[in-house]
């Protein structure tokens, strides 16, 4: 069961478990960190005890034993110094640990995002995801510094100080202790007041990132639609809401937390002085008074520190919980099951159809079927075109063939093997995709074709030749090493598409899927693509969705989808014979438009 991320306890549990995971390799550092903190706290507690001895045993009775007095004085000063030194070293050690944990966490989140199913990205917002990987993991660092350093340190100092007070005068210690629940009440009130604002501020920050990423990604559409002012206003509102949430958080801090704690400090000091005033003060009690007043600061300060960290702590816990929730998102089925190659998959029947679909039904949302009872066989080496109106289910069918969404078991076979039974490596190697949007990296032509597969230059060049991209790549100023700019901005849309085809072919796929790969290119480039596809005939099974019917005119078979059902199927000439048929109408319409 997923933890309730709205519930603060659930969030804290998630945050701590995430912290443990990220810090696992550094566990020994944590052990040392606690040990050093205890040593520093002990040293700090010893200071006032030596100060008391100096006053009560030497200064007040005028017992001037100089060597012992010098030793006690040095003890008071040195214990303070050494404690500060240890605390500093501790901070350095913890900061290192925190940074390494953030590094690991970031890697964990990014790697996990890469494995998420496509259905996750249907609802994910890019900016928010980026914010998880960058800001939220960074916030986990504060969790380390705050939780492990300030809070742990303050708690240890607090316990040590209360013990030292009990050693000096247990009745006075009890009075100080009796007032401590008031601090807990203050902290509780503060948390109740500020928690909703903290959660809201973080959500809004993520929203700010999301809006920014969305606007930059779609800048051309945004400017062309004259939507700058509207987007500016939308952003201003989110920005203002974020400011208001942060202000509410600060108000809780400034109006409740700080004044209440300062008041508490004064009450405590008054109580101790009042108690001493009630007593017949003897000479030896002056030292105790000195020690108590020194200790009061050490009780108040850790409490202030602990409570002051709460706001940051809350933010970090919320951020960590969000990272943890993202990490709990189930990986895509194929990654999650991490299937090994099965005997069946390895058998790979060479006479079986490349794709065999039987009675396939599919819906993204229950009750809203997109594909209805689809049955289809595509022999190996065939070139098949898929056409149909917008929304008829063409891309959905392709997504199912690519395993982006789980299809009912056994309804799709590839080379005789159910899609689910093919191991990941093999599946990705056998199926190549040329998407509608070519998606080029801001890298060289070579890297864009290689896509991290460590292909050799001859393999890359052969793929580029097969896609008819070699000539224009070779003509670039640095040939295959020419940087193509962000999103391939140095190339025309047609050239980008040819690189995308080369990329798909470089993996030597047995099945090549094209999703409207020619819809945005000119007729000349389309002809190049047609020639390239023609050359693949018999070697690679090609399944191409095309709005532009000229691309698939020469296909062995054309499948016409209408509202998620196959209504016509056959080669171009045959489909053109069906009077009033959908294909015929679509084709004639395109002819007219041309
Ligand atoms: N990720 C999704 N979540 C929910 N519904 C979806 C999703 N993708 C597509 N649909 C719906 O499924 C139906 C088929 O969409 P699909 O994209 O497969 O059609 P298409 O034939 O490829 O259309 P086009 O030619 O416009 O690309 C549509 O009604 C669409 O709204």
UniProtKB/TrEMBL annotation:
Pfam family, any one: ABC_tran
Record-annotated ABC transmembrane type-1 domain positions: 32-315
Protein's UniProt name: ATP-binding cassette domain-containing protein
Keywords associated with the record: ATP-binding, Cell membrane, Membrane, Nucleotide-binding, Transmembrane, Transmembrane helix
Residue stretches making up the ABC transporter domain: 355-588
Compartments, as annotated in UniProt: Cell membrane
Membrane-spanning parts: 30-49, 69-89, 109-131, 143-165, 172-190, 255-276, 288-308
Family matches, as SMART domains: AAA (SM00382)
Molecular function terms, GO-annotated: ATP binding
PROSITE patterns: ABC_TM1F, ABC_TRANSPORTER_1, ABC_TRANSPORTER_2
Record membrane topology: Multi-pass membrane protein
Main location: membrane
Organism expressing this protein natively: Duganella levis
Superkingdom of the source species: Bacteria
């Amino acid at each position: 069961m997923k933890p309730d991320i709205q519930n603060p306890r659930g969030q804290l549990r998630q945050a701590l478990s995430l912290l443990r995971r990220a810090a696992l390799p550094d566990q020994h550092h944590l052990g040392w960190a606690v040990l050093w903190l205890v040593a520093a706290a002990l040293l700090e507690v010893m200071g006032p005890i030596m100060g008391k001895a100096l006053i009560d045993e030497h200064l007040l009775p005028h017992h001037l034993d100089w060597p012992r007095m010098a030793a006690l004085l040095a003890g008071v000063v040195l214990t303070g110094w050494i404690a500060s030194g240890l605390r500093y070293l501790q901070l350095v050690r913890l900061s290192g640990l925190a940074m390494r944990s953030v590094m690991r966490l970031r890697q964990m989140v990014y790697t996990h995002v890469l494995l998420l199913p496509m259905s996750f990205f249907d609802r994910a917002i890019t900016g928010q995801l980026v914010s998880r990987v960058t800001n939220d993991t960074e916030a986990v660092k504060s969790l380390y510094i705050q939780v492990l350093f300030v809070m742990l340190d303050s708690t240890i100092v607090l316990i040590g100080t209360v013990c030292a007070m009990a050693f000096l005068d247990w009745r006075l210690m009890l009075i100080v202790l009796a007032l401590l629940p008031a601090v807990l009440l203050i902290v509780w009130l503060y948390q109740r007041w500020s928690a909703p604002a903290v959660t809201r501020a973080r959500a809004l920050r993520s929203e700010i990132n999301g809006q920014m990423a969305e606007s930059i990604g779609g800048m051309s559409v945004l400017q062309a639609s004259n939507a700058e002012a509207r987007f500016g206003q939308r952003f201003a509102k989110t920005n203002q809401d974020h400011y208001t949430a942060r202000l509410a958080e600060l108000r809780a801090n400034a109006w409740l937390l700080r004044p209440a704690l300062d008041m508490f400090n004064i009450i405590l000091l008054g109580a101790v002085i009042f108690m001493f005033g009630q007593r017949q003060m003897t000479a030896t009690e002056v030292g105790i008074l000195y020690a108590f007043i020194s200790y009061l600061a050490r009780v108040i300060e850790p409490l202030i520190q602990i409570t002051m960290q709460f706001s940051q702590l809350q933010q970090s816990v919320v951020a960590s919980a969000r990272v943890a929730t993202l990490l709990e998102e189930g990986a895509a089925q194929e990654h999650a099951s991490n299937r090994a190659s099965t005997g069946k998959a390895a058998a790979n029947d060479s006479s079986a159809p490349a794709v065999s679909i039987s009675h396939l039904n599919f819906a993204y949302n229950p009750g809203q079927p997109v594909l209805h009872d689809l049955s289809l066989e595509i022999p190996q080496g065939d070139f098949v075109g898929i056409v149909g109106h917008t929304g008829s289910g063409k891309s959905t069918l392709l997504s199912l063939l690519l395993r982006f969404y789980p299809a009912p078991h056994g309804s799709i076979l590839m080379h005789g093997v159910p899609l689910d039974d093919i191991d990941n490596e093999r599946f990705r190697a056998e199926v190549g995709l040329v998407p509608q949007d070519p998606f080029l990296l801001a890298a060289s032509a070579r890297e864009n074709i290689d896509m991290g597969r460590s292909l050799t230059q001859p393999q890359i060049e052969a793929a580029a030749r097969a896609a008819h991209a070699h000539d224009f790549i070779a003509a670039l100023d640095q040939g295959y090493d020419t940087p193509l700019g962000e999103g391939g901005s140095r190339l025309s849309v047609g050239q980008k598409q040819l690189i995308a085809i080369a990329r798909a072919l470089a993996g030597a796929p047995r099945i090549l899927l094209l999703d409207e790969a020619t819809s945005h290119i000119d007729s000349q480039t389309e002809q190049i693509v047609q020639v390239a596809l023609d050359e693949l005939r018999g070697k690679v099974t090609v399944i191409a969705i095309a709005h532009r019917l000229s691309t698939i005119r020469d296909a062995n078979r054309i499948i016409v989808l209408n509202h998620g059902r196959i209504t016509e199927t056959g080669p171009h000439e045959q489909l053109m014979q069906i009077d009033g048929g959908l294909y015929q109408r679509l084709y004639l319409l395109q002819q007219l438009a041309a």
